[in-house]
């Protein structure tokens, strides 16, 4: 690998064109960049989907947004910043090929070290490459290999930072539901734009009705952006009403999650948000999401479908039994 004296590195640019969960899971690698190059400013370039997420990362000095290509003016502003500002190290965090991230790495051609994963396309834009990701390789293990390529310390721990405004708004949203002795479960049945990685709504209804039969539990539902209507449809079919947390900024959702005892979720960005805030989770995993995206640690549980690409076959009985065990696990009880 090209020689990079850690103390001499002044500017690091990391590129990740993805979604909320992608950036949260890449967070430990960004923290590794900050600790591995103590004198450097770490700048992050993300898609517009990750604006709120980037603002919650405590180890990024600044970030800029790569907008859609038809937003010519904004794209040119981002591109000119990458071309004309000096950079000692550029890193593409996308494990698979992305036209946008490849374009950005090309613009960073003056950086003496340009690192990323082997992708089989446009690999010449990199000076250093980690081997391509394996089909069943967990995302955290992929980033561990990329950190090893650069020789920087890596800890696979998710981390985000909330502020006082997030906490105050979460308190306002939950002000009508003071915390009592009952344990709180937050249910997120999204992402409704997907199908195979979304557990059927009728199963959420049946499972929630079982939970509502336990007086020691208090159930809340969460609606993400654009999800108010489908979540209302699920809640309307429950045997009694439950509070619904409306679509809110990501930091506010995180502060709401911090006030819960466990989150029951499809595998989407909010799952990783809960993991980064050290809140126990119970996920509904396909074979793929279990292998590649599953939250690690004793506070994270789930049911796994036999199918590689879909979680929909998980039965309500499987989910209910697994959820009961999770609620009584010592790591969740504390």
Description:
- The protein is α/β, with parallel strands linked by helices.
- The chain folds into two domains: 6-150, Rossmann fold (3-Layer(aba) Sandwich), CATH 3.40.50; 164-333, Rossmann fold, CATH 3.40.50.
- It contains 13 helices and twelve strands.
- It has helices at residues 20-36, 51-54, 72-84, 99-107, 139-150, 164-173, 201-212, 228-235, 250-258, 269-276, 287-292, 316-327, 330-333; strands at residues 11-16, 41-47, 62-66, 89-92, 113-117, 128-130, 183-188, 217-222, 244-245, 262-266, 281-285, 300-304.
- The chain has a six-stranded parallel β-sheet with strand order 3-2-1-4-5-6, sandwiched between helices.
- Strand 4, helix 4 (99-107) and strand 5 form a beta-alpha-beta unit.
- The longest helix is centred in the N-terminal third of the chain and has 17 residues, at 20-36.
- The chain is elongated and about 60 Å long.
- The N and C termini lie far apart (46 Å).
- Residues 69-73 have low confidence and may be disordered.
| Stretches with pLDDT under 50, minimum 5 residues | 69-73
Q: Report the order of strands and helices.
A: EHEHEHEHEEHHEHEHEHEHEHEHH
CATH-defined fold name of the largest domain: Rossmann fold
Structural class: alpha/beta
């Amino acid at each position: 690998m090209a020689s990079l004296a850690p103390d001499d590195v002044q500017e690091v640019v990391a590129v990740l064109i993805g979604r909320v969960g992608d950036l949260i899971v890449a967070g430990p690698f960004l923290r590794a960049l900050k600790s591995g190059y103590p004198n450097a400013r770490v700048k992050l370039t993300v898609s517009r989907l990750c604006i709120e997420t980037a603002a919650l990362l405590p180890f990024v000095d600044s970030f800029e947004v790569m907008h859609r290509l038809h937003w010519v003016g904004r794209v040119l502003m981002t591109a000119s910043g990458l071309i004309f500002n000096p950079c000692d190290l550029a890193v593409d965090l996308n494990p698979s090929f992305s036209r946008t991230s490849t374009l950005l790495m090309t613009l960073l051609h003056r950086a003496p070290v340009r690192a990323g994963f082997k992708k089989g396309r446009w690999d010449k834009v990199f000076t250093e490459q980690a081997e391509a990701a394996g089909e069943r390789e967990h995302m955290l293990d992929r980033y561990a290999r990329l950190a090893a390529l650069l020789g920087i310390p890596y800890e696979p721990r998710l981390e985000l930072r909330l502020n006082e405004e997030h906490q105050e708004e979460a308190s306002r949203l939950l002000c009508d539901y003071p915390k009592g002795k009952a344990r709180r479960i937050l249910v997120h049945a999204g992402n409704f734009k997907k199908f195979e990685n979304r557990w059927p709504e009728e199963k959420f209804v049946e499972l929630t009705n079982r939970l509502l039969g336990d007086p020691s539990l208090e159930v809340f539902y969460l609606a993400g952006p654009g999800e108010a209507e489908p979540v209302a449809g699920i809640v309307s079919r429950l045997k009694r009403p439950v509070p619904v947390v409306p679509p809110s900024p990501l930091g506010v959702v995180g502060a709401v999650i911090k006030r819960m005892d466990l989150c029951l979720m499809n595998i989407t960005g909010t799952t990783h948000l809960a993991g980064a805030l050290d809140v126990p989770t119970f996920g509904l995993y396909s074979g793929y999401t279990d292998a590649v995206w599953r939250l690690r640690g004793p506070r994270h549980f789930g049911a796994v479908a036999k199918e590689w690409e879909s979680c929909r076959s998980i039965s309500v009985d499987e989910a209910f039994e697994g959820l009961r065990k999770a609620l009584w696990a010592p790591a969740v009880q504390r």
